[in-house]
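Structure first, sequence second, as always.
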């Protein structure tokens, strides 16, 4: 091939070569762009996953912290679940811990639930009027024990029946009810207020009683509401008395 032929071929092939070079450049550019997009997408995905994982870990940490606080409060000893129990007392300790957790979660007996439901159900009614002791209440003015007796009867507590607060307390004590501070009040409790230094158990206006409803209000025979059964705060229902406590129905085993 002569030099002229070579030059002619180079002249004719130069545009094709340039086109090929351009295509190559575009291809390289596209690959770089694709690589960049792929990296960006991968990075974004990794960042999102990392953020989600961090948030999940934070939630786990918070829940774990709460669980740890609960367990430390319950004070459950470490147990050997990998083999034979270390001690027969482990079972007793676990059962006791379960009871304590149930108490922390607001668990209460079926009896307490029945009372709380009845306490809510009779709001607005003059319960003392339904009592056989109605005439002794001075038109409902001293009708708190009579009203509580009627609500208790409706909840299935046939042994609670007295015209006085003291009489109700005595009946509760005989049937296993337990005394607790008013600050520990929970639905189903009987909330009691009385004045120290008085013969309040004999009646006469020196004591008052009501049942705690599911709304944590003391449902009682309210003179402020026309002697109707009404849910009120402790301050309102028992505020005139200098001493307060609650009686709680027993948990049946």
């Amino acid at each position: 091939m002569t030099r002229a032929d070579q030059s002619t071929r180079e002249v004719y092939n130069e545009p094709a070569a340039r086109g090929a070079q351009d295509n190559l450049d575009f291809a390289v550019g596209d690959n770089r762009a694709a690589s960049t997009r792929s990296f960006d997408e991968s990075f974004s995905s990794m960042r999102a996953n990392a953020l989600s994982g961090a948030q999940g870990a934070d939630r786990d940490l918070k829940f774990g912290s709460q669980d740890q606080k609960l367990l430390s409060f319950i004070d459950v000893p470490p147990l050997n679940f990998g083999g034979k129990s270390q001690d027969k007392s482990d079972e007793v300790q676990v059962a006791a811990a379960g009871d304590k957790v149930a108490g922390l979660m607001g668990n209460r007996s079926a009896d307490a639930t029945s009372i709380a439901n009845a306490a809510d159900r009779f709001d607005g009614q003059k319960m003392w009027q339904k009592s056989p002791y109605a005439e002794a209440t001075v038109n409902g003015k001293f009708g708190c024990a009579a009203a509580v007796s009627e609500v208790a009867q409706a909840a299935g507590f046939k042994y609670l029946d007295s015209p006085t607060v003291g009489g109700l307390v005595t009946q509760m004590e005989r049937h296993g009810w337990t005394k607790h501070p008013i600050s520990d009040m929970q639905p189903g409790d009987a909330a009691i207020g009385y004045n120290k230094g008085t013969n309040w158990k004999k009646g006469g206006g020196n004591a008052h009683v009501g049942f705690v409803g599911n709304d944590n209000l003391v449902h009682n025979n309210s003179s402020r509401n026309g002697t109707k059964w009404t849910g009120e705060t402790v301050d309102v229902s028992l505020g005139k008395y200098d001493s307060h406590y609650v009686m709680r129905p027993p948990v049946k085993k």
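Margin note: Confidence is low (pLDDT under 50) at residues 2-29, 31-36, 50-106.
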